[in-house]
Request: fold
Amino acid sequence: MSNGSAPLAATRKAVSRSRPKGVAIGRMQLAAWHIAILAVVFGVWYALTTPGIVDAAYANRIAFFFGRPLQVVKVVIDWFVSGKIYPHLAITLWETLLAFAIGSVMGLGVGLWLALSPTASAIAEPYITAMNAMPRVILAPIFAVWFGLGVLSKVALGVTLVFFIVFFNVYQGVKEVSPVVLANARMLGASRQQLLRSIYLPSATSWVFSSLHTSVGMAFVGAVVGEYLGSAKGVGYLILQAEGVFDINTVIAGIVVLTIFALLLDFVVTKIEARLLVWRPRTAQTESL
Amino acid sequence: MASAAPAQARARALAFERVTCAFAGKGGERYTAVSDTSFVVGDGEFVSVVGPTGCGKSTLLNVAAGLLAPSSGRALVDGEPLSGINRRAGYMFQADALMPWRSALGNVSAGLQFRGMARDAAAARAREWLARVGLAGFENRYPHQLSGGMRKRVALAQMLILDPGILLMDEPFSALDIQTRQLMENELLELWSSNRKSVLFITHDLEEAISLSDRVVVLSAGPGTHPIGEFAIDLPRPRDVAEIRLSPRFVELHEAIWHVLKSEVLKGYAQGKR
Reply:
């Protein structure tokens, strides 16, 4: 960049209001950088794995470990054109959804219960800590034995990952309910049950939503890892199959597809979040009349 | 006692009988916030309590609300000892107490819903009350989309919709700018005069206390706060809070009460500095 050596203060001054704070380049420039980095990565990858650009012996060896970008793209396109990927994707997304839903509901329930019952919380505390500290991915083989190689064992793994994120958020959320709001609701005549419904639950839910990105991501991780460790369907299974025959192009194609869908999920979550948390104050909000 | 108010001929809506509140402080020390406090609020009477900041005014109010049980002594509501939440009272808090996840309408109708009224009926009543506090058209706004004054109006409607016999108000307007505050004070007086509730109004602002009340109770500086004076405010009603401040009688009363309050404020200030 030509102005790279300009003093920071001067660069800051030139920043327009539409940019994120502290970013010294424009929107178009930012997009250009994003694309350029991607292009460089693909370019280097392509160059290193193409005989003729690099010595053929090296190129083939590198391609064995890293695959070839054009082959990867071909596999991805082939999957979607032939439709071969859809049942696997559907399974993986279904597992993600189930793991997320079940884990969230369980986390919400247990979180509310323990936060509102100090005795139960004190009794459960060491076990919660231990289970949270445990690397839970290691439970996958046990779940495979319990629930078989189908959808259930992946959901179970995802649930153990999602549960703790939601649980800790809800627990915190209930503990941090404003005492004034609580006292006010009591003065307005709320019974214990109504306090739960009208104060604790909405407050806790808002914390669940704030952890939505992490928990959806974790549900996805649970599904894919579960599939990878033993299954008959799913994107993780495709990767496992390809790895078995050293088809590195397909492995990487699987990773690319998973990444794209993780991004899509994240996008959907952002949209849902914006709709459900309308009551949340945002800084510098303007009226839309 | 300086110029104590005449004994109430009317019934007592709320009475404190030798109320003492002590809290366990740091290192096992006991902190006595309120000590041996007795006074009454007559039926339909507007009583203000003034005192230096941090003297335990809110503690007294929480006792009256039933949110806090006194260490000794008792609070009486309509002659009955209070235990648990005071069902006859509405409470307006100093801090924002609206539920941020409910719209203005949802907040105002909350109390009715807690009492088992159907959602539609409660919403209709809430709509009326929002209009009465000047917030027609703001039903669907969330608290963060309202100004400080509007939030106070919502809180006022939220309390009044339940038609409580006793209003407990804890410096409700202290966070507002002076113009909004006087508007709100006038509105409060208007709403109050149409349907005389018993009011216990806590404030550290002597002018606010005098311009609103029938009687002003002065509290000493903490710890061990207790009443040190009661003054009947014989200003004519209806009042305009901005205009009444200019009347000679107001100035007289202000001087008399300030004479008692000043030394306590200085004491409170000295303690705060330590």
